[in-house]
Amino acid sequence: QTICLSDYKVPAYLVDQVDLRFELFEDGARVHSVLSVRRNPESSAGDEPLYLHGDSLVLESVALNGTPLAAGDFDDLGDALVVSSVPEAFELQVVTWIEPQNNTRLEGLYKSSGMFCTQCEAEGFRCITFYPDRPDVMARFRTRIEADRDAYPVLLSNGNPVAKGDLEGGRHYVTWEDPFPKPAYLFALVAGDLVEKKDTFTTCSGRSIDLRMYVEPRNAQKCDFALDALKRSMRWDEDVYGREYDLDIFMIVAVDDFNMGAMENKGLNIFNSSCVLASQETATDAAFQRIEAIVAHEYFHNWSGNRVTCRDWFQLSLKEGFTVFRDAQFSADMGSPTVKRIEDATLLRTAQFAEDAGPMAHPVRPASYMEISNFYTLTIYEKGAEVVRMIHNLLGESLFRQGSDLYFQRHDGQAVTTDDFVRAMEDASGRDLSQFRLWYEQAGTPALTVTDEFDEERCVYRLTVSQSVPDTPGQTGKKPQHIPFAVGLLGRDGQPLPLLFSAGSDDAPVDRVLELTEREHCFEFHGVSERPVPSLLRGFSAPVRVHYPWTREQLLFLMSHDPDGFNRWDAGQRLAVDVIQSLIVAPEAEVEPRLVDAYRSLLRNTGLDQALVAKMLQLPSEAYLIELSEQADVAAIHRAREAVLSHLATHLRDELLACYHRNSAQGDYQLTPESVARRSLRNTALGWLLHIGDQQGLVLAQEQLRSADNMTDRLGALRALVNSDFVEERTQALEGFYQAFREDPQVVELWFSVQAASVRAGQLPQITQLLEHEAFDWKNPNKVRSVIGAFASQNLAAFHNPDGSGYAFLATQVCRLDDSNPQIASRLVTPLTRWRKFAPEYRVLMKSALERVRDKDRLSGDVYEVVHKSLAD
Ligand code: ARG
Ligand code: ZN
């Protein structure tokens, strides 16, 4: 069943107040709900029946204004409760019975290692009780939780605790009240035997906020970093957006079984353990950074998401795109802005571009969907954030801030649309963003083709840029978009040249954002005395592909001279892609010697920002190389990339060893950008040395594994060993590592994924063994992702085994998971849906694996949508 944006109608009934009482037991939970309902004055629906969503509920009783309803007065349709002929305003009392202990979908109320917790976004609240489960119905919630006192001493919900006490039979209760009206998707409940970590934050207006983190006792030592990140986020949102926290208490809970990363429930954020718990011994630098970003993201939602929420789920990017943009700004401020930009652009170009070119391509504001869970995508989140970033760049810092102030002020307490967001930006800035709105409506990645000419006599340099937006499923013949295109020009000696639009004017900038609005644009720069090298799309100023016939000469030049750090990195990537691609075509050809020289000077360059150097040393991933090809031949791509890697490592052995040692003396573990860069550099060097079977590298790796005082270095050494041909040593290392960390689920997940993502340690028979490992758990999404997900999306040469075994394996696991957790199954199937991207011999096998999934009995709606859309022609 397809749901369309064009069918949107305001709700026929509004809910002002929700009173909930949860009786939690081991064999189930009884939910008493009292709704204060009234007809919506804005609705033209007349005396339509009251329609309440429900899913997997056992209805025990229903009463209207205290009078039990007779069987003829309502319909329990299974997925809805419909009450005909209701008065203008009334109270509805509903009692339902649910079984959290058997809830393997992890939507609604469920149990995770002994504790009760909830996940209601997008449509999980209907698994708890009957309710108009749509974000434009906003109500005040009062929640009383009753449970056994010993097993569940901690009882939490949104807002402030207002009452508590003992009950008969060793039970107790706590009542919570949330003064802010909210959609049901922001409801949360937690009950468990948890330890509490406390802190406080004083807001800009001097209010003192109680900060609390609740975790299982074994994780008590892993909370400090998240609490500190929370305080940094709270301060930052005040400083940069003028947003002050609004309740007196803010809580974070960590749970092991969670479908996504985290959830911004009002005043009670719930996190996947792996996205919030950290210590030096167990978390990598990347994990620390991810945790800081996610803590900030969920906190920022309090304004961009909760105070101002979405009218309907087509507007999901309203809160997600904006909030990802905000958390990216925050991370840039906390660490290295260039590195953050490189990471975001890499994810976008590798995974979002692939999504936008695949069968599930959809606009940032989709026009239709079947299952909303399938639309928590890179397009909604990451491309949505890029769209907000472009508005930021077009308006500039100060007008953007005025726009966001206006947005929050105008829409506080409302459920609104992406269009309302853009309108606030327009109204505050006086800019016309009507063409810009196409970014929300048109799917597909715009492609820019750039050509240039130099008129030596007139000293005129001409850039011609044409844009086209590709067709996507259901959308053809697209209009040109409004694209901010940041450029600079470099002179022969590396000096930036002024960008003068007409002869005569002085002090021209050396950096400009050209605004593309036509299908083709021509820009003339005057007073250019020599043929420049163009630096295009600086800072990745728009989520587009750029085609320009760069020579290797030019790329090498930009790689060492471009003052824009992002483009410096990008030039290196383009050069490496070009070299690898020429080896795909001609496997016996020589590796470009100038690439070796370029990497040599990078390895020796201690003057340049070492965080940038660390990024520049990473070769483009196989996934990115696949994304760039028309008909990907995975084996050829893998072979070519490995050959370049071996060639570089062999010719740069001395420099790698020097780099390793130079970055080894570190003293105490620190999380500064400089020390993160040092660890990254030395682990990259180690990886390359082991890749070519270097004996000295082996000794260093084993020593590092033994003596490291942090997980980044320990895992770096393990990964290097796992990706080497030292079979015995890597087996030993894996065994030792597991024995040392078997009690820690987050580290065990790292241990799984390092193997599953490795072409050497993660061939299918080994993957099958991992699924049988004592630490593997089908019910835990993190474990599933760390083995099956890592295999199918990172271990590409093994997954795309030409015999089709990888595909068949994935199809089997997807079918298995579809019965217990459809959301996870639907995400896991993604790699198969990209079958059209591959060379014919792969394509056939991928397609038939997909057809096997399609033909499974009782396929979930989640997987149905993805599989059918990707098989449609
Ligand atoms: N709103 C959450 C976040 O981005 C994501 C929750 C999505 N959950 C889901 N089941 N689709 O922070
Ligand atoms: Zn979010």
Automatic annotation (TrEMBL):
GO terms for molecular function: aminopeptidase activity. Its cofactor is Zn(2+). The gene is pepN. InterPro entries: Aminopeptidase_N-like_N, Aminopeptidase_N-like_N_sf, PepN_Ig-like_sf, Peptidase_M1, Peptidase_M1_dom, Peptidase_M1_pepN, Peptidase_M1_pepN_C, Peptidase_M1_pepN_C_sf. This is Aminopeptidase N. Pfam families: DUF3458 (PF11940), DUF3458_C (PF17432), Peptidase_M1 (PF01433), Peptidase_M1_N (PF17900). It catalyses: Release of an N-terminal amino acid, Xaa-|-Yaa- from a peptide, amide or arylamide. Xaa is preferably Ala, but may be most amino acids including Pro (slow action). When a terminal hydrophobic residue is followed by a prolyl residue, the two may be released as an intact Xaa-Pro dipeptide. Residues 444-548 form the Peptidase M1 alanyl aminopeptidase Ig-like fold domain. It comes from Marinobacter daepoensis.
